[in-house]
Specification:
The complex is a heterodimer of chains A (267) and B (788). Chain A is α+β, with helices and mostly antiparallel strands and 267 residues long. Chain A has five helices and 13 strands. Chain B has three domains: 424 residues, Multidrug efflux transporter AcrB transmembrane domain (Multidrug efflux transporter AcrB transmembrane fold); 137 residues, no CATH class; 96 residues, Alpha-Beta Plaits (2-Layer Sandwich). Chain B is 65% helix and 7% strand. Chain B contains 29 helices and nine strands. Classes of the chains: A alpha+beta (267), B alpha+beta (788). The interface between A and B is medium-sized, with 33 and 36 residues.
Chain lengths: 267, 788
C-alpha cells in the first residue's frame, strides 16, 4: 500500500515537472504539491543552530549536525541528528526513519547512560524537540491532507506570492495536526513558502512561520532550501529560530549509516 | 481678620454658594473615573524580602491569578466517564476564556498533564488523558497512569480519587478585567456541569480576591445607609430640617470633593478605601454640627441670622481650623506606612477633611445666612432638654461634687481588664480570615483543603550562580531533601512539588519502572540528557512553573492545609536553619508565596503600627502644644487618645479580633478624630472661664455646649460606621465595631475624663484665662473687638 502511494506520488511529481509551463495560473493543489517536493533533497548534510526563546527573552541554544537521506518514495527521509552543544548533551544522538503514512521510527542515544532507547512515536501536533515546530511541520503531510484554495496573489517584501488557504480534509486530520487552517504565502518564482500563518483547532491565531532566505541547493533538480526559519507562537510568546550552515547536497550518504549501531558512536 | 473674612463671605453669600456648587458639579463628574479595584500588591510591604521573592517568582513562573476548580464525585471516585467528561468540558471551557494562560492550565484533561511512563525500551511521555476513556480497561489504565506520577497526587487528584482539580492562571487584558471577571467567566463554565453526581468548589487567590471586590462594591449601598443614620442623629440633635440639612450637605459635598479629587488624580479605590467615604462623611457632618450648635447659641443671643453666623464662626473657626489641621496632619502621617493602600487611605482622608474645612469656611456661612433664620419653634425645640443634657449635667455634677469614684472608677476598671486584652491580642493577616466561616468562599476552601494538598502556598525560590545551575545534582538533591523534610516534619504540609519530582520519575521510567531507581540521577550530563529526551515528546512549557528557561532558578512549591501565620512562621524559622546546610553555598534560597507574604505583613504591621500611632500622637502633641502655647497642653490632649488606643487594642484582644491590615488603621483613625474632641473641650473651657471667671460655672457650660456637641459628633461617626457591621464581610464588620467602640471611648474620655483632669489639675493654659483678660483676648481672638 505504502509503495503504491509512493509510486503514485512519484508519477505525479514526474508528470508535473514534465508538463510545459502553461500561461494559465496553476491550480492551488499544483502549487502546494510543488511546494511539497521543492525541498525533497536526495542527500543533505548540514549543521544547524536552533535558538529557543521564551516570552521573557530567555534563550536555549542547541547546535546539531544532521545527515538526511531521501527514501525512494520521494517523501520520507532517514535522519541522523547529533547534538554538539550545549556540552552536557554533546554526543546525544537521534535517529528518525519517517513514514508519511504511519508512525515514524525513532531512537535516541544518551551518552551519560550509554544506551540507545527507542522513542514511542509522537503525535503530529507535538512539539519537535522543544521547539515551536511540530513533528507535523517537520515532515509535512502529503498535499491532499488539506484542501487548498488561492485567496489572492500579492507581493510580500517585494516577492510575488500566491496566498493559499489550506483547511484539513477531515476532522481527524484537524485533530491530529492541531490546525484549523493554514495560510501560506508561496513564492511564484520557486514555490518555496515565504510565510505561513496557523490557526489552532479553535480558530485562534496560533503561530506564524517565516522563511526569509532561500537558496537553490540543487539547480539540476530545482531543489531549494530555507537557510533560516523563524516561528513564533502567539499564544505562549515562545519563538524558535533555526539557522542552517554548511549545507552539502553532493556528499553521498550511505543507507547503512542510519542504524542504531552508528547511533552509539557518539559522533 | 477671620471675622472680616467671614463678613465678606456672608456679604457675597450667593457667589460663595454658586462657587461651591460649581466645584461640586465639576468634581462629581470626576467620580466617573473612579474604579474599585483589588490589587493585593497595594496591601503588601514591597521592600520585604518575602514580598520581593514572591514578585520575582510570579514574574518568572506565573501563577499570579490562580483559580482552583475542585470537582468531587458524590459516589465513587472521579474515574467514571460522566465525571471525566465534565473535567474535559471544564478544561476546554476554561481554555476558551480570554486571558487564560493556556500553557498554565493543568487538570487530568490538560495537555500539560503528562504521563511519564517506563517501558522495556525506554521512556514514553504522553498526555494523561487525550480523550475520555470509556471501557473499564481504559479507565483502569488512566487511573494507573495518574497514580504512577506522584507529582499529580494531592495536586490534581486526591489520594482517595474522590476529588480532582482544574487549575488555571489568567492574565488581565482588555477582555478580562478584575478578579470578578475571572470568577464570573469560570462560573459560567462550571455551572453547566453542576448536578447530583458532583460537587464543585472554587478556590485560589483569584476567587478570594473576587469576593473581596464584590464586598467592596457593596459599600456604595452601605454608604447611603450610613448617610441615613447620620441624618437621623442630626435630626435628633437639632429637631429641625434646617439643622439636619446643612451638615448633610456639607458631608455629602466633602465626600464628593474627596472622591472627585481621587478620580481627578486617577487614584483607584480599593477594598480598604471603599469605607473611607463613610469616614469623611461622618467627620464633615461632625464639624458642621459643632458650627451649627454654636450658631444656634449665638442666634438665641443676637436674634439676627447673619450676625449669628459671623459671631459663631469667628468664635469656633480657629478651633475648627486647629482641630481640622491636626486631623489632616495625622492622616497625612499615614503616608509613612510601607503599604500603598494605607498611604492612599491617608491622603484620601486628608483630602476629604481638608474639603470639609474649606466648606466650613465658605459654604456653611454662606448657606446658613442665605436660608431663612430658624423659626421660634425650631429654636425652642433645639434647646429642649434631653437625655444628653441630663447626662452632661450628671458628669459635671459628679466632677463638681468631687465624686471621683464615679469619674475615675470606670478608668480603674479598664486599667484592670485592658492588660488582659492586650496580652490576648493576636497579629495575623489572613485574607481568608476576612470572610465569614459560613460564607461560600470559606466552605469551598475547606472542602479543597480537605480533599487536596492544601490551598495555602509557600514557596522557595532557588537561584543558582549561572545558567544551567539547577542541573547540578547537588542542588537537585537539596531540593529533594527539603521536600522530604517538609513532608515528614509538618503534617499540615499537604503537598510539595519541584523539578526533582519529574527527574526522579524520568530516572525510574528509563530503568523500566524499577522502584529502586526512583531517585535523582547523579551526573549533570544525565540530568541534561533526560531533560532533552523529555523535550522530544513533551511541550516546551511543561516545566515552566518549576524551573526558569535557562535553568538558573527553580521553585519548590509547598501547599499547606492551614493559613495560620504562626504555623508558617515556625516552618520559616526551621527552614532558615535547614536550607544553608543543604544547598551549595553559591545558591541563594528565598522564601515567598501567599503565606509568607502574610508573615511579612505581620512583621511590618506590628512595627509599622506602633511607629505610626507614635508619629500621629507626636504630631498631635506638638501641634496642640504650639497652639495652646504650653507643653502641658499637648499632654492633656494626648491622654484621652492614648486611652482610646489602648482600649481599642484591649477590646480587640478580649473579643478575639486580630490586628491586621484592616484593623490596623482603626486606631490611627480614632486618634485622628478623637483629637478634635479634646481641642473643642479645651477651647470652650478656656472661653467660658474668661467669660464667667468661675471654674464650676465654666465647666458646667462647657459640658452642656461643647461636650454635648462632641457627643453628637461621636454618635454620627460611630453610628454611621456601625452600619458596616451589617455588611457580612468581616473586614468591614470589624471596622464598624472598632470605630464605634473607639468613638464611645474617645468621646467619654473627652467629655468626662478630660474635664475632670482639667478641673483637678487647673493647668495655666486653660485656667490662665480666668485671671487675666490679656490671655483670653489673645487666645480667643477678636471677641473684644466684636463687642466694641
Amino acid at each position: 500500500m505504502r509503495r503504491m502511494r509512493a509510486l503514485l506520488a512519484g508519477m505525479l511529481v514526474a508528470g508535473l515537472w514534465a508538463s510545459p509551463a502553461t500561461a494559465a495560473e496553476p491550480s492551488p493543489r499544483d502549487i502546494m504539491e510543488k511546494n511539497f517536493y521543492v525541498t525533497k533533497i536526495k542527500h543533505l548534510v548540514n549543521d544547524s543552530t536552533m535558538t529557543l526563546i521564551n516570552d521573557k527573552g530567555q534563550q536555549r541554544v542547541r547546535k546539531t549536525h544532521s545527515v538526511n537521506l531521501l527514501q525512494p518514495n520521494g517523501i520520507d527521509s532517514k535522519i541522523m541528528i547529533r547534538f554538539l552543544f550545549p556540552g552536557d548533551v554533546e554526543g546525544t544522538g537521534y535517529l528518525q526513519v519517517q513514514h508519511y503514512d504511519g508512525d515514524d521510527d525513532m531512537w535516541i542515544y544518551l551518552p551519560a547512560l550509554k544506551k540507545v532507547r527507542r522513542l514511542v512515536a509522537n503525535n503530529k501536533k507535538d512539539s519537535f524537540v522543544g521547539s515551536d515546530f511540530s513533528y507535523g511541520d517537520v515532515l509535512q503531510p502529503v498535499v491532499d491532507t488539506y484542501k487548498h484554495a488561492i485567496l489572492k496573489s500579492e507581493p510580500l517584501d517585494g516577492e510575488a506570492c500566491w496566498v493559499i488557504e489550506s483547511v484539513p480534509a477531515s476532522e481527524q486530520i484537524k485533530k491530529d495536526y492541531g490546525y484549523a487552517k493554514k495560510t501560506s504565502w508561496i513564492r511564484k518564482s520557486n514555490f518555496m513558502e515565504k510565510k505561513v500563518e496557523y490557526l489552532d483547532t479553535g480558530g485562534r491565531p496560533l503561530k506564524t512561520m517565516v522563511a526569509p532566505e532561500v537558496v537553490e541547493v540543487d539547480p539540476a533538480n530545482h531543489k531549494w532550501w530555507a537557510m533560516r526559519r523563524e516561528v513564533k507562537n502567539h499564544q505562549t510568546g515562545h519563538s524558535t529560530l533555526l539557522v542552517f550552515e554548511g549545507l552539502d547536497t553532493k556528499q553521498p550518504v550511505r543507507e547503512d549509516f542510519f542504524t542504531t549501531r552508528y547511533l552509539e558512536r557518539e559522533k | 481678620m477671620l471675622r472680616r473674612y467671614i463678613t465678606f463671605v456672608v456679604r457675597h453669600r450667593l457667589a460663595a454658594i454658586l462657587a461651591a456648587a460649581l466645584l461640586s458639579a465639576f468634581l462629581s463628574t470626576q467620580i466617573g473615573n473612579l474604579r474599585v479595584i483589588v490589587n493585593p500588591d497595594h496591601n503588601l510591604p514591597q521592600e520585604h524580602p518575602y514580598v520581593i521573592a514572591t514578585n520575582l517568582i510570579e514574574q518568572i513562573f506565573g501563577s499570579r491569578n490562580l483559580i482552583v476548580i475542585g470537582v468531587e464525585s458524590v459516589s465513587g471516585d472521579v474515574f467514571q466517564p460522566a465525571v471525566l467528561e465534565k473535567i474535559q468540558r471544564i478544561t476546554d471551557g476554561v481554555l476558551d476564556i480570554p486571558g487564560v494562560i493556556r500553557s498554565n492550565v493543568i487538570s487530568l484533561a490538560a495537555r500539560k498533564a503528562k504521563n511519564i511512563a517506563g517501558t522495556e525500551e525506554g521512556m514514553v511521555v504522553r498526555q494523561l488523558m487525550e480523550t475520555v476513556p470509556h471501557t473499564p480497561g481504559e479507565i483502569a489504565q488512566l487511573k494507573k497512569a495518574v497514580y504512577a506520577n506522584p507529582i499529580y497526587v494531592d495536586s490534581i487528584i486526591s489520594r482517595n480519587g474522590r476529588m480532582t482539580t482544574i487549575i488555571a492562571d489568567f492574565k488581565f487584558g482588555p477582555e478580562l478585567q478584575g478578579y470578578r471577571a475571572i470568577k464570573e467567566r469560570v462560573e459560567a463554565v462550571v455551572d453547566r456541569e453542576r448536578d447530583d453526581h458532583v460537587r464543585i468548589y472554587l478556590g485560589g487567590i483569584a476567587v478570594n480576591l473576587a469576593w473581596l471586590e464584590i464586598y467592596s462594591q457593596r459599600m456604595q449601598f452601605f454608604f447611603f445607609g450610613a448617610l441615613a443614620i447620620i441624618m437621623a442623629v442630626l435630626y435628633l440633635s437639632f429637631r429641625s430640617f434646617q439643622g439636619m440639612i446643612i451638615p448633610v450637605l456639607t458631608a455629602v459635598m466633602s465626600v464628593i470633593w474627596g472622591l472627585g479629587l481621587m478620580g481627578f488624580l486617577h487614584v483607584p479605590m480599593d477594598t480598604f478605601n471603599a469605607t473611607t467615604p463613610v469616614l469623611i462623611m461622618a467627620v464633615a457632618a461632625g464639624h458642621s454640627v459643632q458650627i451649627l450648635k454654636r450658631y444656634y447659641e449665638e442666634y438665641g443671643r443676637l436674634h439676627e441670622s447673619a450676625a449669628a453666623v459671623i459671631e459663631s464662626l469667628s468664635r469656633i473657626g480657629p478651633v475648627m481650623l486647629t482641630a481640622g489641621s491636626m486631623a489632616v496632619a495625622s492622616f497625612l502621617a499615614l503616608t509613612a506606612f510601607p503599604t500603598l493602600t494605607i498611604r492612599v487611605f491617608g491622603v484620601f482622608t486628608a483630602a476629604g477633611i481638608l474639603s470639609a474645612m474649606v466648606l466650613e469656611m465658605t459654604f456653611i456661612p454662606a448657606f446658613r445666612s442665605f436660608i431663612p433664620a430658624p423659626k421660634r419653634y425650631e429654636m425652642e425645640r433645639e434647646r429642649l432638654r434631653d437625655w444628653l443634657d441630663r447626662f452632661t449635667e450628671a458628669v459635671s455634677g459628679a466632677i463638681l461634687a468631687r465624686k471621683w469614684g464615679r469619674v475615675f472608677g470606670p478608668l480603674a476598671a479598664a486599667a484592670l481588664i485592658l492588660p488582659v486584652g492586650l496580652n490576648l491580642l493576636v497579629v495575623d493577616s489572613s485574607l481568608k480570615g476576612e470572610f465569614d466561616p459560613n460564607s461560600l468562599v470559606r466552605q469551598d476552601d475547606r472542602a479543597l483543603n480537605d480533599g487536596m494538598g492544601g490551598t495555602n502556598t509557600v514557596f522557595l525560590l532557588i537561584e543558582g550562580p549561572g545558567p544551567d545551575a539547577i542541573k547540578n545534582p547537588a542542588a537537585l538533591q537539596a531540593l529533594d531533601a527539603t521536600q522530604r523534610h517538609l513532608a515528614e516534619r509538618y503534617s499540615l504540609v499537604g503537598k510539595t512539588q519541584s523539578l526533582a519530582d519529574f527527574l526522579k520519575r524520568m530516572n525510574k521510567a528509563m530503568h523500566a519502572d524499577d522502584p529502586k531507581e526512583d531517585r535523582l540521577p547523579d551526573s549533570r550530563e544525565l540530568i541534561a540528557q533526560y531533560l532533552l529526551l523529555y523535550s522530544m515528546s513533551g511541550d516546551p512549557g511543561d516545566f515552566d512553573t518549576y524551573v526558569d528557561y535557562e535553568y538558573q532558578a527553580a521553585v519548590l512549591w509547598a501547599y499547606l492545609k492551614t493559613d495560620s501565620t504562626a504555623y508558617i512562621e515556625q516552618i520559616i524559622t526551621d527552614l532558615r536553619d535547614f536550607l544553608p546546610r543543604h544547598f551549595p553555598s553559591d545558591y541563594r534560597v528565598s522564601i515567598g508565596g501567599g503565606m509568607a507574604q502574610g508573615v511579612a505583613l505581620n512583621e511590618v504591621m506590628v512595627q509599622g503600627k506602633l511607629l505610626n500611632i507614635g508619629s500621629i500622637a507626636a504630631s498631635i502633641y506638638t501641634i496642640s502644644s504650639l497652639v495652646l502655647r504650653s507643653p502641658l497642653a499637648g499632654l492633656f490632649v494626648v491622654i484621652p487618645l492614648i486611652l482610646t488606643v489602648l482600649t481599642n487594642f484591649g477590646v480587640m484582644g478580649l473579643v478575639g479580633i486580630r490586628l491586621d491590615i484592616g484593623t490596623a488603621a482603626t486606631s490611627a483613625m480614632a486618634v485622628g478624630i478623637g483629637a478634635d474632641y479634646a481641642i473643642y473641650l479645651i477651647y470652650r473651657m478656656r472661653e467660658e472661664l474668661g467669660r464667667h471667671r468661675d471654674a464650676d460655672k465654666a465647666l458646667a457650660v462647657t459640658l452642656t455646649t461643647a461636650g454635648k456637641a462632641v457627643i453628637f459628633v461621636a454618635m454620627s461617626v460611630g453610628l454611621g460606621y456601625s452600619i458596616l457591621m451589617l455588611t457580612g464581610f468581616r473586614l468591614h464588620v470589624r471596622l464598624g465595631f472598632l470605630v464605634a467602640t473607639a468613638m464611645t471611648v474617645s468621646c467619654l474620655s473627652a467629655v468626662a475624663l478630660l474635664p475632670a483632669l482639667l478641673y483637678l489639675g487647673r493647668p495655666r493654659f486653660v485656667f490662665g484665662a480666668m485671671h487675666g483678660p490679656a490671655a483670653a483676648t489673645q487666645a480667643l481672638g477678636p471677641r473684644q473687638e466684636a463687642r466694641g
